[in-house]
Amino acid sequence: VVVKIGDFGLVKLPESTMTSMYTELKGSLNDPDLIHVGFANYEMCHETYAITRLCYFILTGRTNIEKQKEGAIKRFWNKGTSTDRSVRFTSVDEIMQAVRAITEGNK
Fold first, then answer.
1. pLDDT tens figures, 66-82
2. Degrees (nearest 5) of the Cα angle 13, 18, 21?
3. What is the pTM of this model?
4. DSSP letter for each residue of 56-93
5. What span, in angstroms and rounded, lies between the C-alpha atoms of 18 and 63?
């Protein structure tokens, strides 16, 4: 699985003059928690939330988790989108390892 993420200016870097922390939330895969915490408090866990959702779609062809059976893919979703941000993936490398484990387990 190859994932390419495009940055359309939605990540707000405090030191950049090209972005503003005060624009509205955009994107369908963004962590809904960003509405409450704001871009000024944007962290890696918000990024990994969106990447988890994207990888889930690539792995299953679905955006809805309702009918997903218990197993590795559902555990992947639950970890990456947990409301407890301390439980989420902490890096893209960690997500890649989890995706590899899922895809290699399905061979």
1. 888 999 999 999 999 99
2. 50
3. 0.74
4. HHHHHS-S--TTPPSSHHHHHHHHHT-SSTTTS--SHH
5. 32
